[in-house]
Design a protein that fits this description.
Length: 487
């Protein structure tokens, strides 16, 4: 069990097939997403959830409208506090910046706190290629790093593994005695990680939000690894997507409240780590150097192309937990760092190397559960439809979709064609269904996928129009007979 069963670079259909064929994945997802969705619902009910969502939405709309000013304010305050701000346009820029910082500080070992932004730019690979040791310190991330897998969920990176799978990984990689006791497993990992914390040179984290008015980087964890990563090594680097801003301290706590309740169903997480500056002479701990890397990687293009709403995301993962597609296939099938409904929107828009990214907006039933769960009220189904419409406008729609829609338009533009199509569909489907006992159990390609997992009832033998005409004729007949009887 040293690699994921799903090859992230395999074609989209293959990834989906592999995910659906993995019964352990299904068990792991059903257990975890169901629990997280229930916890979120009760945590939001415990407060006025609707009001909280409206307030967070309002705040994030303000952020998106004033992004350039807020970023300048953040930079000015981080710098005034003694930190250093770096601007990265691309993933390669992030690699260059972080490697430069690491080399200047003679870094050999890097600690990582969980971070989607660094996953997005594959920072670990760049650091390892440069000869450094990188250790993930979030328990879930640590387990998947041992197993050489990427995360499969925004807040629960190892959600695709059952407890039994995790035990197997720890036995194989860390010589753990056989046990299924989560506390024993956690204690073992914690003991190993303690040694790493004591000997690391540099800590790297993401940033749940940065407060513009104070120049403070905030990371939200339940394990305390964020605090150790940012405070123990000599150098601390936070990497944030440029949208992760809260204008004021008050706004930050509003977002924090929505994040905790939506992500894990908690009122507050165990730790909220806030870093505003490097260590000062009288401080008991803290890094000698504090760097903030602000990442674009396609985000300003998203704004320019009308997808700014997706930048309001606070990465809580709630939309994943309620998505009927994610709950079946899990995160790796998306082939991207970001999965689920929000991943299907932003993966094709960010500058990421995702195989068949153009297919992701179609990995949705558009049921709207994600929009209802989102603490920022992001209209994910509309964004997915917009992305699909863009593909049509750009002439990039799939051949079958394009041909089917053209055929539909042609048919609907002529009554004769519409009626003829109805007759052909009725005749054809009834003949085929007569061989399989009433419902169609098999359809020819390209429709074969439909009947692989469900029946297809044949079209009615007589159309509504025909039934209506027959009824009208009968009525006329009866009325005529009555009239002649009365006369
Ligand atoms: S889109 Fe909404 S629900 Fe999904 S991760 Fe972002 S904030 Fe959470």
């Amino acid at each position: 069990m040293n690699t994921t069963t799903i090859d992230l670079h395999a074609p989209y259909r293959q990834r989906i097939k592999d995910a659906l064929g993995n019964p352990h994945l299904k068990t792991a997802l059903a257990r975890a997403t169901g629990r997280m969705a229930v916890q979120r619902t009760s945590a939001m009910r415990a407060v006025d959830g609707e009001q909280l969502r409206s307030q967070v939405r309002q705040m994030k709309e303000y952020v998106i409208r004033h992004l350039p000013d807020l970023l300048e304010e953040l930079e000015a305050n981080v710098t005034a506090n003694g930190g250093q701000v770096h601007w990265a346009q691309t993933a390669t820029d992030v690699h260059g910046i972080v490697l430069n910082i690491a080399r200047q500080a003679n870094v050999k070992k890097v600690l990582k706190a969980k971070s989607m932004a660094t996953e997005e730019v594959h920072l670990n690979h760049a650091l390892e290629d440069a000869g450094m040791t990188v250790v993930e310190t979030d328990l879930g991330e640590y387990i998947i790093q041992l197993n050489q897998e990427p995360p499969s969920h925004i807040v629960a990176p190892v959600i695709h593994r059952r407890l039994e799978d995790i035990a197997e990984i720890l036995q194989e990689k860390l010589d753990m005695p056989p046990t299924l006791d989560p506390q024993e497993m956690t204690a073992l990992a914690r003991g190993k990680l303690r040694q790493e914390f004591l000997t690391a040179d540099m800590g790297v984290s993401g940033c749940n939000f940065a407060i513009a008015e104070t120049g403070t980087v905030c990371i939200v964890t339940n394990e305390g690894n964020g605090r150790l990563t940012s405070a123990m090594p000599r150098v601390y680097v936070a990497v944030m997507g440029l949208e992760k801003i809260a204008p004021t301290v008050e706004d930050a706590f509003l977002q924090y409240q929505a994040l905790c309740r939506s992500a894990t169903g908690q009122q507050t997480t165990i730790y909220l780590n806030m870093t505003s500056r490097p260590r000062q002479p009288n401080d008991v701990d803290g890094p000698d150097e504090f760097h903030l890397v602000i990442l674009d990687n396609g985000r300003t293009d998203m704004l320019a192309e009308g997808y700014g709403e997706a930048l309001m995301c606070i990465r809580c993962g709630a939309c994943l937990n309620v998505c009927p597609v994610y709950r079946e296939i899990g995160g790796h099938a998306y082939g991207s760092t970001y999965s689920g409904p929000i991943g299907a929107v932003i993966s094709p828009l960010l500058h990421m190397d995702v195989t068949n990214a153009e297919k992701l907006p179609h990995a949705s039933t558009l049921c709207g559960a994600c929009r209802d769960a989102c603490p920022v009220k992001i209209d994910l189904p509309r964004l997915l439809v917009d992305l699909r419409a863009d593909q049509v406008d750009d002439g990039k729609a799939a051949w079958f979709d394009r041909t089917a829609m053209q055929g539909f338009v042609q048919t609907m533009q002529s009554r004769a064609r519409y009626e003829a199509a109805g007759k052909i569909a009725s005749l054809g489907s009834n003949v085929m269904a007569s061989f399989t006992g009433g419902n169609l159990k098999f359809m020819p390609p390209p429709l074969a996928g439909w009947t692989q997992s469900r029946d297809f009832p044949p079209f009615a033998r007589r159309s509504f129009r025909e039934l209506w005409q027959a009824r009208q004729s009968l009525r006329k007949e009866i009325t005529g007979e009555r009239a002649s009887a009365e006369s």
